[in-house]
Design brief:
Blueprint lengths: L4 H27 L27 E2 L22 H9 L5 E9 L5 E9 L4 H7 L5 H8 L13 E6 L2 E6 L9 H15 L7 E6 L16 E2 L19 E8 L6 E8 L5 H10 L17 E7 L2 E6 L14 H12 L6 E6 L2 E2 L7 E2 L7 H16 L4
Parallel strand pairs: 5-6, 11-12
Antiparallel strand pairs: 1-7, 2-3, 4-5, 6-7, 8-9, 10-11, 12-13, 12-14
Length: about 400
């Protein structure tokens, strides 16, 4: 992209304002308290990611956790100080940190998990949920990621976790959601967030201290919920039978800043071959998500050798570099889609049988599909590169 003198000055001003906004958001996240945070502790441990899981949740009575695809390694605490040590560090001006996974939504209603670095505290599961409540600080944090919070303003949360069951009590504000889609996203986001913690297998809801079967727009909150399929694509009536199975695909969001996991129902075996083939077909909603492979590109074959998935595409794959980010997010989506399967540790790309230079040889597994600080950093880098392209 080329800029005139005036355009360059405008972009410089916009970039400076963005940096200031990021600094203010970071300061708020360290010192601000999310709206609706209550004082009762929960007993959740740091969230973990096992190799298998899919997301989205359907109510089930007494059922065991569903198995799906969790493609990344477990997020680990950045600092594992004890509470006493953390208190001393805070008094000395250095707060310990941990990683937690927050579920936001994008402008189209897709749920997007983001790994965030937060101050270490007791009751980290409830603290994570409080980050999802609408407030000035939380909305600023979400906005700098291009995302939105999922719980209504002033929602208060009580949480008790015991023997794998998280019992969550939400205040009456959740009865005033705009529509069924907002209700469903809120319920699914809560279930996915809580089941990221290895101490939680099931989730039970109370609303204002009482059991309810449904929310005002018809969303079920009765029974217990386990982890299910995230962002499930609409299923055609011909596929509504016992032969279809879910497979998780990863697509760049329309902003190009985040990766969105999507569940697609398929008739074939949900393995790496099927996943890459379905990924190459593109998202069902092309106006909301970005294609991973360029237009006209076909998949020749997929081979797995010694933990490496070798993907062979037709010649059109080289057009990937024409993406605004040089194809970085598309390659990341390919890696996440492949490495969700057991026994696959990295990915190699081939074009008409010849190895494709992805600048880093084998494409290894990202630490997580979306990391908050990386999203902001990459956005600034992209804008800076556009700003100083004067050719």
């Amino acid at each position: 992209m080329k800029f005139s003198g005036n355009q360059r000055r405008v972009y410089l001003l916009a970039l400076a304002l963005l940096v200031v906004a990021v600094a203010l958001a970071s300061t708020w996240s360290l010192w601000g308290r999310p709206a609706g945070q209550s004082t009762a502790p929960d007993t959740a441990t740091t969230p973990t990611q096992d190799p298998q899981s899919t997301q989205g949740s359907e109510p089930s009575q007494g059922s065991e956790p569903s198995q799906g695809v969790r493609p990344e390694a477990s997020p680990q605490p950045l600092d594992t100080q004890t509470s006493a040590e953390s208190s001393g560090a805070a008094q000395a001006g250095g707060a310990s940190k941990t990683s937690t996974i927050v579920y936001y939504q994008d402008n189209y209603g897709y749920l997007v998990p983001v790994m965030c670095s937060v101050p270490m505290e007791d009751g980290i599961a409830k603290a994570t949920l409080n980050m999802m409540v609408q407030s000035v600080g939380n909305d600023m944090q979400a906005a700098r990621l291009g995302l939105r919070t999922v719980l209504p303003e002033n929602t208060k949360i009580d949480l008790d976790i015991s023997h794998g069951l998280a019992r969550i009590d939400l205040s009456k504000e959740v009865l005033d959601m705009a529509d069924a889609a907002a209700e469903s996203n809120m319920v699914n986001a809560i279930v996915q967030t809580l089941t990221e913690f290895d101490s939680v297998e099931k989730v039970e809801f109370l609303i204002d201290g009482k059991k309810r079967e449904k929310l005002p727009h018809g969303t079920s909150v009765g029974g217990t919920f386990t982890r299910g399929d995230i962002n499930l694509e609409s299923v055609e009536p011909t596929m509504a039978d016992a032969t279809v199975q879910p497979v998780t695909l990863f697509f760049p969001g329309d902003s190009g800043a985040v990766i969105v996991p999507v569940t697609r129902m398929v008739h074939s075996r949900p393995d790496v071959n099927t996943a890459v083939l379905e990924l190459a077909k593109g998202p069902n909603n092309a106006e909301m998500l970005e294609n991973v492979v360029p237009a006209g590109c076909g998949l020749i074959d997929v081979k797995v050798e010694n933990g490496v998935a070798k993907l062979n595409f037709t010649s059109e794959f080289v057009n990937l570099v024409q993406n605004s980010d040089g194809g970085r997010m598309a390659l990341k989506a390919l890696v996440l889609t492949c490495t969700q399967f057991d026994g696959i540790d990295s990915v190699e790309i081939y074009v008409d049988g010849k190895k494709y230079d992805a600048s880093a040889g084998e494409l290894g597994v990202p630490s997580f599909m979306n990391v908050a600080d990386s999203i902001v950093y990459d956005y600034i880098q992209t804008q800076s590169a556009m700003l100083f392209d004067f050719d």
